[in-house]
Amino acid sequence: MTSTTMRDLIDAGLHFGHETRRWNPKMKPYLYSQSNGIHIIDLRQTVVLLEQALTFVREAVADGGKILFVGTKKQARNSIAEHAESVEMPYVNFRWLGGMLTNFQTIRQRISYMKELESEENSGEMLSRPKKERLRLRRDLQKLRQSLGGVRDLNELPAGVFVIDVNAEETAVREATRLEIPIVALVDSNCNPEPINYVIPGNDDAIRAAELICSMVSNACLEGRELAKKKASAKKKKSDSPGKPASRISRGR
Fold first, then answer.
1. Tens-digit pLDDT profile for residues 35-79
2. Which fold has domain 103-155?
3. What does the pLDDT look like over 129-166, one tens digit per residue?
4. pTM as predicted
5. Using an 8 Å Cβ cutoff, are 119 and 67 in contact?
6. Which of 34, 143, 204, 251 has the fewest C-beta atoms lying within 10 Å of its C-beta?
7. Measured torsion, CA atoms of residues 100, 103, 104, 106, in degrees rounded to the nearest 10
């Protein structure tokens, strides 16, 4: 991390927590002070913990895993979708469906149904259905796209979950914890950090804060993908290289 990055954290308002009366005491170790009834988050810790979180993301992607981006509140919704799509990672930015992780196979069935409806719509086959049924199916398709469009290509459980606002995404956090999927999260002063494997202390309500952290996580995904390519290339070179010739052992007479 550089001093410029620290400046970026400050400019994005990551140091502003919630009103002191709304705090979660478990966040005390991550707080620096309070000012005018607002908790100030200790960005010195944020810098260190953010780098740890990004290292996890980088290594998880390098090992072939996917990071599921989750942020359904309006301040994070656009950033989550934009940055996840930019690195071809799955995301949920509208509504977390219960069982998204813990009932994964059922969710996959709903995704298959969504794809069937899309195929009908694109081919024109849906036009052959009665009008009322057609309208109902199109409403179903719209709802499915909102809830599952971002995970349509998630064919196995993710290697990690990245969350903006632990309180808003309580169900996602609970499901990931139950399945022991590591969680990276932007954690504000009113949240419980205990279920989070990689805590990023910071303001989770500011649009600029969400945008900055999402961009850094997506960059780590890109770096992980590059590492994966290098690993694959090195492995291929090793397998393609001829073995060492057998050494000749002279026999005494």
1. 889 999 999 999 999 999 999 999 999 999 999 999 999 999 999
2. Helix Hairpins (1.10.287)
3. 888 998 999 999 999 999 999 999 999 999 999 999 99
4. 0.88
5. no
6. 251
7. -100
- Return phi, psi of residue 251, to 5°: -100, 135
> Would you state the structure tokens that stand for residue 144, as one six-digit string?
């499915």
User: Which tokens go with 22?
Assistant: 């709304």
Distances (CA, A) of 89 to 68, 149, 162, 214, 224: 7, 12, 11, 12, 12
Q: Where along the chain do the CATH 3.40.50.10490 domains lie?
A: 3-101+157-227
Alpha helices (H) in the chain, listed in sequence order: 3-11, 43-62, 74-86, 104-123, 131-148, 170-178, 207-240
Beta-sheet strand order (sheet of 67-70)? 91-92, 67-70, 160-164, 183-187, 198-201
CATH number of 3-101+157-227: 3.40.50.10490
What does the DSSP assignment read for 22-56?
G--GGGGGGEEEEETTEEEE-HHHHHHHHHHHHHH
